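Structure request: Carbohydrate ABC transporter substrate-binding protein (CUT1 family), Varunaivibrio sulfuroxidans.
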Amino acid sequence: MLKKFLLPAAVAVMALGTVAQARAVEVSISCGAVGAELNICKSGAEAWAAKTGNTVKVVSTPNSTTERLALYQQLLAAHAGDIDVFQIDVIWPGILGQYFIDLKKYSKGAEKAHFKAIVENNTVGGRLVAMPWFTDAGVLYYRKDLLEKYGLSVPATWRELTADAQKIQDGERAAGNKKFWGFVFQGKAYEGLTCDALEWVDSYGGGDIVNAKGDITINNPKAVEALTMAASWPGKIAPEGVLNYAEEEARGVFQSGNAAFMRNWPYAWALGNSADSPVKGKIAVAALPKGGVNGKNTGTLGGWQLAVSKYSKHQAAAADLVMYLTSRAEQKRRAIERSYNPTIVSLYEDPEVLAAVPFFGSLRATFANAVARPSRVTGAKYNRVSSAFWNAVHDVLTGRATAKASLARLDGNLKRIKRGKW
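Returned structure:
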């Protein structure tokens, strides 16, 4: 069933340990491939294999979270045993939790070292269905050399960012770089746009689509103001193509030196400062802008967890792999090498981690207090809620509808999805 998703080079990784092969098992793990994600997942899994004497099969899954969830639902609903360890989004425990084992049997209390809110997010019906692996929140990347060149400071509001992006774009194009843009982000109609748009709306004080009580709140003047602002970007300070950008497309433009600002996740830091990056040493990270003087800095909560399928034939070994990959040592390695945010609280005070990724310290509050998508309150209906939201936002960005009209229509769609209770 998964043949087309298997990496050519990701056949079983033979263990280097001395455990008798008769006792060894093969464990398969799904890994994302955004940025350096696949390689660092594979190296961690190989280290576990070498330590335990087992073998590991790494399964590459779609980068799109929407496509990946659909694949997971198909596999799990069929009780397929193709994947033992699933990498799942922070918004999926409520959707997929019924298919995963309770990891408390294997964790020995290790979850107590992780961010409490994420552990609670991963606990469904009293069962720890996933262990936190790395967390995320949207952040603003900017070219510190260009801000200095044009006498600008880090924009405090979205309106300031719009003006600054235009000024730098005009200047760089006048200097000869006709491909230069002011701002890139995730504008494609997919889960990533839900994340970006929720940040815009929340920063203006427009709420979080559906509140903790289950009330639909998105159709309000502050949300209209936020989306109207965002609709002014494509074709002006952002390329028209941004309407089809996911994370990697935005990173490609920014890292090539052709954008002043970028909204993305922390993973882009290590790649932007890699040896072959044209912007190495020229970039910095800040909290995303406020919606206005009365707004707030906000970032959407992201991050990924590891879960073990209840259809796995090797649950104990799979759980051991999960505990290894989510351990303090492994999370520290991933933070230093590839700027993946730890979920273990103490690592945000680790000198080696802070030396490698300085903004982990300065933006700790952003990561700890990120705005959550309404996945817990909407439960199994979250996918439909998010899809309705991102399509409504995309209609605004493309000019097919005004923010006011699109949000009014979205309000009706969400009420139909809810039908009394989530």
